[in-house]
């Protein structure tokens, strides 16, 4: 994997990269950030333009593109990322079409996670105050998604959110705060609907019984 080379500015607590990691406000220009984003977009172009039968090519590109990508994982094109190198994904991952990850900083996704179409995961946001926002100022807070999570279609996961192991995020939800383990959570803003219980081993959807 050809990860970007560490920048000497990492040692400066007021550098752009240090501000990004600390959740402080920054403008993402300089310190080699533009070059890293361009590298990501070049690899994404090759991935998204690959032919359906070029599975080995797709896996190779994902290995170069992502910070880490576990065994048995698969992502359907098209895929959109900011840097790619800040995305860390576990084993047996599956993402359907149009996954967007704005990975200015780390996004950690566990094992056996399933993501439906048109999901956006964004650790990055902008200040509410218009004067602070005017120069293009932004902030980033890491996102963490546990093992065995299922994220439904058209979900948006916002900065700083952690989703606990085994939980389900209902389609169309906007996840603004942490979701605990083994619950179904839905809505905008996303709220816990109910725990996942033994009943869910018998009924997979409403009153549809598992054969």
UniProtKB/TrEMBL annotation:
Residue ranges annotated for the Maltose/galactoside acetyltransferase domain, each copy included: 17-71
UniProt xrefs under Pfam families: Hexapep, Mac
Matches recorded under PANTHER family: ACETYLTRANSFERASE YJL218W-RELATED, GALACTOSIDE O-ACETYLTRANSFERASE
Keywords: Acyltransferase, Repeat, Transferase
Gene name linked to the record: lacA
EC number: 2.3.1.-
CDD domains associated with the record: LbH_MAT_GAT
Listed InterPro entries: Hexapep, Hexapep_transf_CS, LacA-like, Mac_dom, Trimer_LpxA-like_sf
Protein name, entry field: Acetyltransferase
Species annotation: Streptomyces triticirhizae
Family assignment from sequence similarity: Belongs to the transferase hexapeptide repeat family.
Superkingdom of the source species: Bacteria
Tagged with keyword Repeat: yes
One GO MF term attached to the UniProt entry: galactoside O-acetyltransferase activity
């Amino acid at each position: 994997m050809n990860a970007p080379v560490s920048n000497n500015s990492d040692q400066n607590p007021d550098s752009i990269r240090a501000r990004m990691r600390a959740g402080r406000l920054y403008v993402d220009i300089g310190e080699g950030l533009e070059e890293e984003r361009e590298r990501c977009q070049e690899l994404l172009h090759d991935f998204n333009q690959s032919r359906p039968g070029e599975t080995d090519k797709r896996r190779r590109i994902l290995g170069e593109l992502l910070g880490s990508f576990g065994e048995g994982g698969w992502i359907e094109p098209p895929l959109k990322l900011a840097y790619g190198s800040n995305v860390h994904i576990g084993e047996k991952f599956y993402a359907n079409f149009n996954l967007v990850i704005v990975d200015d900083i780390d996004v950690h996704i566990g094992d056996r996670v399933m993501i439906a179409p048109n999901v956006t995961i964004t650790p990055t946001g902008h200040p509410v105050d218009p004067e602070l926002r005017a120069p293009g100022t932004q902030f980033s807070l890491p996102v963490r998604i546990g093992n065995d999570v299922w994220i439904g279609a058209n979900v948006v996961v916002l900065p700083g959110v952690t989703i606990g192991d085994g939980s389900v995020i209902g389609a169309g939800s906007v996840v603004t705060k942490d979701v605990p383990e083994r619950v179904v959570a839905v809505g905008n803003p996303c709220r816990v609907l109910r725990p996942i219980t033994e009943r869910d081993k018998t009924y997979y959807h409403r009153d549809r019984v598992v054969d």
